[in-house]
Amino acid sequence: MHLRKAKLMFFWVRYPSSAVLKMYFPDIKFNKNNTAQLVKWFSNFREFYYIQMEKYARQAISEGLKAAEDLHVAGDSELYRVLNLHYNRNNHIEVPPNFRYVVEQTLREFYRAIQGGKDAEQSWKKSIYKVISRLDDPVPEYFKSPNFLEQLE
Question: pTM for the complete prediction?
Answer without folding.
Answer: 0.92
